[in-house]
Amino acid sequence: MTPKLSDHYEKRKPSAIRQSQITFSKRRDKDQVQVINLAIGNVSLPMHPAMQSRLKALGDSRSPFGNGIVKYTPSAGTDECQDAFLNIIRSEGSSPTEQISCVITDGGSQAMELMMLGVCGPNSSKPVLLLEPVYTNYIEFAKRLSIPIVTINRTINDSGRFNELDLQSISEIIDLEQVNGLVVIPGDNPTGQFFRQEILIKLGRICVEKDIWFISDEAYRQLYYGSDEVSSIWKISEKQVPGIAGHRISIESASKIWNACGLRIGALLTDNREFHRRALSEYTANLCANTIGQYIFGALANITTEKLNDWYQQQRNYYTKIMVQLREGLLDALPGLIVTHPEAAIYLVADFKNLVSVDFNISDFIHFCAFEGSVNVEGKSYTVLLASMDGFYLNNDTGKTQARIAIVESPDQINMVPAVLTELFNMYCQRSD
Q1: pLDDT tens digits, residue range 131-185?
Q2: How far apart are CA 237 and CA 340, in angstroms?
Q3: Distances, alpha carbon 184 to alpha carbons 4, 120, 199, 250, in Å
Q4: Pairing state of beta strands 101-105 and 266-270?
Q5: Selection from 44, 45, 62 nearest residue 53 by Cα
């Protein structure tokens, strides 16, 4: 006899972005197979040099940790770490940051949960509106907190382009479902779609008209690859959207543009003082975010706009080249495969629907790659790990032919993906016949 688990735990399954890694860990020959892990957005590039300098000097006498003592910070985070996020926003040409309040969190994910608690709250009757497919953590946190979700669906055409947002439908569903907040990810995870500033302005007008929260997840804000400028809710002026002040919340992160996923530093920003006060009260239960992580990220508080812009451009140049080459390689290797265009963030979506029968399930194929599939390349065995897109939809059947590809491995490994993935797919199809 053992105690009974909660119903929540009984039903809980691993996140779609972690499932293939868990499956691979159970593989008998895992020590003999080289993994190209494109399932998780676990950036493998070095952090910003200023952050690296602090990391390397943590034990020095000039470091606040040189004496071996690591104390709590205030629950809102250190002033320096808060100003690092605000300095970044100022560097992007946004409006003055004096009215923006900040709570430093354990990663962007913790900021998401804190936001949902403030916008809807546990067991809420009013839902949050998401653009589907949506980053899976929003779905999982909503389940954890018993918060209802409504969605507007985006579809991918055969050329790899997404349909334009239907603003009229968004307005109507807000009224119909009594939505309390709209979440948008301008540099989108999982789709890699980019929402230009004019779209954010139009969405902002809807949120002000309906008097709901406008939430923007800006973890990938500087990772956009076209000729447009950076887009952000913090660039929306009162002239463009009268009344926008007090409606805005953003999710920030050190993970992506700053290449510091494991640092676990994020932030919840808002220009609504009461929301900030209540969010901070809620976060006191967490005590504070990672003290050492705050110190390392805080190095960005004093970096000039010119140097920050140089860093942004370096990151964009790197990802643009590697993502374009990967997309072209996949289309050449698997004719008929649909691959989205690299507009933003670090993801592509591959849709196999034109290559498979109606009973194909992407989760089964990804399980095959993780648990048994391997391809020999110059005497070494390789496999590819991907994330099943069915975990990014409320209805799992919607994404059953789609996989998210995270551009996080070395260029040499990513260049191998078209050939390795094609052979794995052919092996899987032959095995399934």
Answers
A1: 999 999 999 999 999 999 999 999 999 999 988 899 999 999 999 999 999 999 9
A2: 32
A3: 38, 16, 10, 10
A4: antiparallel
A5: 62
Phi, psi angles (nearest 5°) of residue 194: -115, 125
Query: For residue 279, what are the CA distances in angstroms to 40, 86, 109, 140, 284?
Result: 29, 18, 15, 20, 9
In which residue are the tokens 């918060």 written? Answer: 147
Question: Structure tokens of 409?
Answer: 């491995």
CA distance from start to end of the chain: 44
Q: Using CA atoms, how far apart are residues 275 and 277, in angstroms rounded to an integer?
A: 5
Could you give the CA distance from residue 67 to residue 325 in angstroms, rounded to a whole number? Answer: 48
Q: Are 130 and 154 in contact (CB under 8 A)?
A: no
Query: pLDDT band at 95, cuts 50/70/90?
Result: low
- pTM for this predicted structure: 0.94
What is the 3 state secondary structure string of the chain?
Answer: CCCCCCHHHHHCCCCCCCHHHHHHHCCCCHHHEEEEECCCCCCCCCCCHHHHHHHHCCCCCCCCCCCCCCCCCCCCCCHHHHHHHHHHHHHCCCCCCCCCEEEEECHHHHHHHHHHHHHCCCCCCCCEEEEECCCHHHHHHHHHHCCCEEEEECCECCCCCECCCCHHHHHHHHHHHCCCEEEECCECCCCCCECCHHHHHHHHHHHHHHCCEEEEECCCCCCECCCCCCCCHHHCCCCCCCCCCCCEEEEEECCCCCCCHHHCCEEEEECCHHHHHHHHHHHHHHCCCCHHHHHHHHHHHHCCHHHHHHHHHHHHHHHHHHHHHHHHHHHHHCCCCEECCCCECCEEEEECCCCCCCCCCHHHHHHHHHHCCCEEECCEEEEEECEEHHHHCCCHHHHCCEEEEECCCCHHHHHHHHHHHHHHHHHHHHHHC
Strand partners, 387: 404
pLDDT digits (tens, 9 = 90+) for 281-303: 999 999 999 999 999 999 999 99
> What's the Cα-to-Cα distance from 174 to each of 130, 155, 352, rounded to whole Å?
11, 20, 33
Give the pLDDT score at 321: 95
